Amino acid sequence: MKSYNINKYGGLLSSSTRRIGGVLPKQLIILCISLLLAIPAAAEVTKRAVKLKQSPGVSSKTTSRVGAGVKVTIISKRGSWAKIKAGGKKGWVKRSSIAKGEPEAPKRKARKKKTRKKAFVKGRSKKRSSKKKRAPKDRRGRDVVSDDDDDGDFIENDDDDIIEDDDEEDDRPSRLSEDDEEDEVDELLGSSSNKRRKKNKKRREREKKAERKRKKEEKEERERKRKKQKRVMYASASMSLFSKPRSASEEITELEKGERLRFVKRSRSGSWLYVKTDYGDKGWIRKDELESTAYNKFDMRLDAGLGFSANSSKFATDTRGNDAPLSAYNISSSTGNIDISVDGHYLLDEKKIILFDLGYTYGVAVPGIKYNDGTTVSKIGYSTQALDVGAGFGYIVGNRQGVTLVGRLGYHWDHFAVKNVGDTAANPARLPSENFQGPTIGAGINVPKLTSKLGLALHANAMPLLAKRSQTQGLEDGASSKATAIFSGLRLSYAWKDSWIIKGQYQYTYGKTVWNGLAENGNRGHMATKAARADQAHAIILGLGLDL
Question: Which pLDDT belongs to residue 37?
């Protein structure tokens, strides 16, 4: 009878077998498998520092990083990519970045001072890299010092300091601006910081816009002051021109009263001005001894006032007798007026100036036209409107009062509106409403600095041609008309304070109209084939002006 014993390797030995270790073939196979299972498998580690991707692909988002020689566990594989787990982190990496081996012990990094290996040479760029824009090629490679160690040490050929990935992303350290650093932090934080990035971008844009606006305003202010300082000035009395900004310095020449001077610069204290005369002499003069020219480069003024106008008309025809009671009359009336005007000028150079004006006047009869034909007594009410617009060219004579000769072209329109014009009870004289308009031509003289506070202006405008007067249909004085008019005036202005001006104005208007032929379906009360009327108005206006 055979008996069997179990050896220490789990094999069955026959007691009748004399050779030690003798085994059956099947038992030998089992023994080999057991030995293979007992040998521990080699660990899988990273060949180099790698980035963990959110999904397989170089364009996938990076979720974390793993250094070189770190032990990893492969969870799954997909093509050339593998999903791993390392120290609680999971992600996809290239399978080529994983190898079998033991985890590397951390190296002790030798301290080495950060220095540049290659000095700059002529023609090489000094531009450093940034996150958004890579450095020029001549600043890469051996010419660049790279150190990602937290302690600031540099180790040559240190794999832990370099992250190599198949997407060839450039992670070399760079010198970033404060804004670029914020963007880099936002990128690392991921999509949750999109709002913050947008907010920071808008803030930086607002700051840049505000800075540009501030610089523009400063530039405009400097330009305004520069232009203001270059105004022409005139000597207010006989005075001396000095070589230095002090009275004890050498006297260059004697200036005459009213002599024109050009500003060049001012002293540090501002009390002396360096000027140039028309004869080429240059020197210093006290600021308080000069008087500025009467005109600035550009000026515009708004005037408003109240006035009173006295009006009269004299009408005559070629008919007489009881059959034509309205063939001749003399009337007088008055109106209260509101006047608004805008006028200004622009200096072309020291002598030439362009002027423009726009004026509107509205008047109401006070109390109206008195009418008395022996049987009927009444007051005919009416209102007036007038609009004037024009532009002119002026030539400055050249003294310190700013005396300017002006030529003007314009257009005039006025409207005479009879209240209840078609009602014979309200309008027993059967006066028509009228429109009078046409181009004007005129001339004038301006003296803006008659004194230091007082200014004067005189003007005269005429409507010699192309003037037209139209009347209410059925109340015409003739079949056709020819009209002329003259407008003249005088204005005084007083510089009250700051930009405010007190003005007083007198205007005189004379117009004449001649009618020929008998109007069809006329209802004027006369059968004249010829008629003429002369109109006059004297107006006074008081108001305020504001320099704009």
Answer: 53
